[in-house]
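A common beginner's mistake is to predict each chain separately and then try to dock the pieces by hand. The better habit, illustrated here, is to supply every component at once so that their relative placement is modeled jointly.
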Amino acid sequence: MTTCAVQTSAAIELYFYDELDASERAFVGQHLRTCRECRAALDELTMIRAALASRSEIAAPPGGDWAPFMARLEAAVARERQRSKVVPITRPRPVDRARLRVRHNLASYVAMAAILTLATTSVVYLARTRGARPPETTTVTTGARPITETPPPTPAAAGSTVIERRAPSSVDTSAAGPERTDAAFASVSEQHFERSKLVVLGLAAKNPSEASAEDWSYERQLASSLLDDTRLYRHAAQERGMKTLAGVLSDLELVLLQASMSDERDRATLERIQRLIRKRDLMTKMNAVTTAGI
Amino acid sequence: MVDSDLITRAAGGDPAAFQALVERHRSMVYRVAYQFAGNHHDAEDIAQEVFIKIYRSLDGFRQDAQLTSWIYRIVMNACIDHRRRQSPAVSSAFGDDADQTLRNMPEETPGPEERAYAGELGVVLEGAIAKLPPGQRLVFVMRHHQGLKLGEIAEALGLAEGTVKRQLHAAVHRLRDALRATSACPERARGVATGGRV
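With all components supplied together, the output reads:
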């Protein structure tokens, strides 16, 4: 059993893979002179490298014959070419809503109702704020950390979420450049947010002590199907200078990635994802962004 | 012709340019896919998916970006996507394949003892790698076999570097366990690590 703190901190692997900076490396090097346990661990890593190096690398199909592979790829590319002629814009994959309706449990609906209430409250609040203050800035207090790097123009309480509104139906916190609203982008990313909310809500609403792996396998599957598009939208938002939206998409991407990539679908994993959702205050942010308009 | 020219031409609809691009990078893609999947069937599916994704993204490739990093990123995502699509029944076959590999392990060709022992260990470790959870397996393959830095892996996967570090630590921990279980004779095993000098 490992007793050395240096070893349990993964420093030996990082030393082996040359991932430490000079001072850390010097420290571990010094430690290795005196710690037999860590030296043994380093030896084992060297042994793993030597043993794996003895295996031949496979970098081609059986027999080195690429012809079937290339033929298959050529056919697939031809189909892609055909498809791109018919559908010029890649749209997010449709979600099987019927299946989703069946699979969602009562807790999800309760959570959705809560979010709906929050959304309504935010809309009312925004409407009132818009009437009472200049239209440049809207502050929504959520108890989360700020989601923009731009300092709020009014002294906001610690932990408030600030969404800048330069114009109705746009969220753009870039430096004083011209407003760049892409209606098509706004439309598809709003739809995407709505679909993603179902995953986030579904995961957040589960009770880890009662949920089995099967109970949230659908959320995992849906998270997986939304991941690529989320990434694309994040890039698009970044390119358009929509920092707030890009930030929320980045948080969403992280949650979707963790959900879809989790190796173990046990209680601890679900709890970790739920902590991440809470820590990033993702539901509130998504809600605030869609309420404010993309 | 350099990669960037091939990409420009392929993006403009030149099939020969795209084919040349595939031929140039297919070995690297297949190698990573095979190291991740552990069998030709899945490796080929992953490699196909990678090149289709590349084809779809030709327009979006930034000329100032590093092509191999871009391809690595696509390969890593394709590996994860592929694993995600596997049904539980199929995913358990990862382990079965590894067991099958062990059962069908050929007799080592005669040679120096340590080299033969390293060969045995290699087979055992390949089996252990195939049984790693996909996240750990991917991080190990990309760091150990492909030599990517943890920061690069983290960036490609959109994860915190600490998460990638933990995945690597867990993977190495499991492989060391597998190694210890196999090393009935530590002195002999140590000989492999030190190139035969026990």
